[in-house]
Design goal:
5-stranded mixed β-sheet, 7 strands, two-stranded antiparallel sheet, globular, mainly beta
């Protein structure tokens, strides 16, 4: 068992998520939520793959939201703009907000 979610390295870079960073996954399809960590998957593969026990909480084709959080000061938070990737059904990036 290699970790809890493998994410295409291109998507990790685009979202600013580091390997082994804590992420929360919210399954829009079935309502499951879990906290785990990100591992890089092959760049350009489009892969988002839950591993180990986490794999029981989603099925291929489920819509999920993957989030990563950080702690910043109130001053920084007032001007902070998150990076949001809007994805296509094939896990390619549609746009970055």
């Amino acid at each position: 068992y290699e970790g809890s979610i493998a994410i295409d390295e291109e998507l990790l870079d685009s979202a600013g998520i580091l390997p082994f960073e804590h992420v929360d996954i919210w399954n829009v399809t079935n309502g499951n939520r879990l906290a785990t960590y990100a591992l890089p998957a092959e760049r350009g593969s489009g892969q988002l793959m839950l591993n180990g026990a986490a794999a029981r909480l989603a099925h291929a084709g489920d819509k999920v939201i993957i989030t990563a959080f950080g702690q910043i000061s109130v001053t920084e938070a007032r001007n902070y703009k998150p990076t949001v990737l809007i994805m296509n059904d094939d896990n390619s990036i549609n746009r970055i907000i």
